Amino acid sequence: MEIEAASASYGGGGDVENGVQRFNGGDRVPAFLVWEDLTVVLPKNGTTRRLLSGLTGYAEPGRIMAIMGPSGSGKSTLLDCLAGRLSRNVVMTGNILLNGKKRRLGYGVVAYVTQDDILLGTLTVRETITYSAYLRLPSTMSKEEVQDIVEGTIMEMGLQECSDRLIGNWHLRGISGGEKKRVSIALEILTRPNLLFLDEPTSGLDSASAFFVIQTLRNVARDGRTVVSSIHQPSSEVFALFDDLFLLSGGESIYFGEAKRAVQEFPTPSDPLTNLATVQIKGMLIEKYRRSEYAAKARARVRELSTIQTHEVETKTGSQAGWWMQLSTLIRRSSLNMSRDVGYYWLRLIIYILVSFGVGTIYFDVGTSYTAILARGACGAFISGFMTFMSIGGFPSFIEEMKGIMMMTAGFFRLLDDLPKPFWRYPVSYISYGAWALQGAYKNDLLGLEFDPMVPGDPKLKGLPSSLFSRSRRELRRGFGLSTQREIFTVSASGLRSGKGRLFLP
User: Fold this and answer.
1) Is the pTM of this model over 0.90?
2) How far apart are CA 146 and CA 162, in angstroms?
């Protein structure tokens, strides 16, 4: 294949006046993204693996760019690099400029849509977008203003027909895969970001759904946003919707330019472009691209955009919602999710109760022998592992929301002491813990001492003033080497059996 020169214009989709670009959706500060000589390496066992090598390109507002290449070519790595989501164990060199300035792409500027849709299946489309809006938008906005933004986003993404339908999960029938992807995109554009990155948005979709998703992204780009998406083997109809193409192979560039120029080179470009970027001819394609006028034009445009003078893109420090708004929104969302998801939350509650009765029965009065040590240890390990695995169900959505800085960590995690006792202590805790731990502690620990886990300080002798306990504590330490600090593991690790004067381990 002979790569020929292209004389296409690389302008955006609007008119620029005084640093503000006018698009179909109104005035918007343009976001010109430039990356130059971008290299990413992964140090491993004293050696380095090169993930990206000397990539140069740009993305302009009003246009949608496709990043293509075979599996392992570096598409997702390039997206993560441009969006500032690279892991800490990789090293990046080169320049990434936004409107001619090197800066961190923060919240409010960049939105990132992952390949997997992390959504709560028990909520409707409108509820999902509404709760996300309350977690992202400023708390100073009125309810009417938030609802206007939600309805506008639903219309922009073409979700009117399914707005009142459930998202759906493994046991609830919901919307289609293409509609779920558009909901994921809607959640990211609520804050009206300037840059939108998508990691293979058409993965797992049929051709019709994929076309509608990319058509929606094209409309988003025409509204003045800069849209960059990785995509794998699109159909010819889907490929025709892209304005620009960045073709990778083995982390190196083999084509960068307008997508329609690639159409002229290949009758059906989507499959051949990906298949040509193989090891056999990769070196030839890389060398041809470096000598072509495509590369020269790209470098010239990069130099031009690196010195562009425009208004500063507004950057926010994090979620604009207050702490109380985040907490109250999450409580409402979680309560609604629990009330609807019979197959998950209510089944889990039944499992908790049954397991509590089972543990309380099996480990009832295990005694104080040597084998009781193993029994108590096994009980603790089982409960810890069981509670850990049963509590991670909400973590996937939380992790994605944290990456998008939808909410603070404090808005998600609540300590048990911060919740009312009827919600956690009396229904579940005493069923199991009271059966094996409290009875065993009464028999095996210092009989006559009272340990109140809710009251700080040292344990107290039953029926005696607290002033007399300091002398008893010194005698216990001197005579038996016992520690009486108020810590459940320390207290339960040693004890005296009443009436026999012998030291027992639990």
Assistant:
1) no
2) 20
